[in-house]
Amino acid sequence: MSTPVTNEEAIAATKLWVERAVIGLNLCPFAKGVQVKDQIRYVVSAAQTPEELLADVLHEFEVLAESSPEAIDTTLLIHPHVLSDFLDYNDFLAVVDAALEDVDLAGELQVASMHPQYQFADTELDDITNYTNRSPYPTLHILREDSIDKAVAAFPEAEQIFEKNIETMRKLGHEGWNALGLAEVQRDKSTK
User: Fold this and answer.
1) What digits encode the pLDDT tens for the residues 165-175?
2) Name one Pfam family in it (predicted).
């Protein structure tokens, strides 16, 4: 029987992943600025069901929409106890998008997806390119559209980020990924 992950463990693992992978590999050139300014809100959901998670998502939409970007620019909603299967998680993203519409925040906020089993369409499960979106725990990244627009305007060739990430991951390979020490985080959490 595995011991549930604590909130502190989930946040620590996610912060390590943000530092070493997202920022360290420059997978998101916009992440460093908000991290340095301490504008990333890390929240762990205790949800055990998709319905409970949706309630947490709606709450985080409200928190982000009502906060100033200087205080909270983006939120990582980590949910280690629900939607551990990637296909179930992927299906839930449609529910999240519909919820954004329902609360009239579409166009103001958007949600990006990260998951330990993330898999792009038409790739094999172990394809290294999937690791661009492989977080230690299932995570919903809630972003402000204004912040994305400003970041894209300030970053030349933003449309090439995805292709650069694929190239980075292919050069890095599984051995390079493992050298980041993130695989140990994955193994540690699976043995608890």
Assistant:
1) 999 999 999 99
2) DUF1415
